[in-house]
Amino acid sequence: MINKTDNSLYNQIRDDILNGELSQNEKMTEAKLAAKYNVSRTPIREVLRQLEYEYLIKENYIHVPGKEEIRDLFEMRILIEVHSIKKAILLFQQSDIDELKALIHIARNGDFESTMAANQQFHEKIVSATKNPYLKSTYDQLHAVIYLFRKTVVEKERHSLLDEHDEIVDAIEKRDEQRAEMLIKEHLEKDLEFGLYYLG
What we know:
Layout: H1 7-18, H2 30-37, H3 41-53, E1 57-58, E2 61-62, H4 67-91, H5 94-109, H6 112-128, H7 133-141, H8 143-155, H9 161-173, H10 177-199
Antiparallel strand pairs: 1-2
Helix pairs in contact: 1-3, 2-3, 4-6, 4-10, 5-6, 5-9, 6-8, 8-10, 9-10
């Protein structure tokens, strides 16, 4: 995983890829990107590795997943989060549940960046319940695709997004596994369809 020092560079290059600022027909060389972003080649190398890990670069060229590939990646995400919520119901203490509630509150009342961060932390908190580093590593590979959809649903203010988070937490708190599984699955499927609609 990329270190914190290079994180802002990673965010900038990732956003430039997703926003179409970098051409998909242009080879992503370390020298060219180092000159463009006015940095040395070492952090560029690490960013390129991370973006390849997250499916945004393939054979040194930008690779923005198509709709079918996105559906496949989201299928993996849904499987991971449905499994994670079962673990959350078994393992989460009241402090964990209170943390999820606090993140929803931040998302409701914060600015765009705060809402984005709280949304990310909400889902990552649920995944953390697995305590499985291999599963977490697989989830991390989806980071760029998840970010793209998170940005879309927050910017376009998907209806009931945070109400669904409330319902998910309520199901966890009541230890209602069947309802929690259904809610997280429906929540992510709505994110997928909403995002695909706006992303064309």
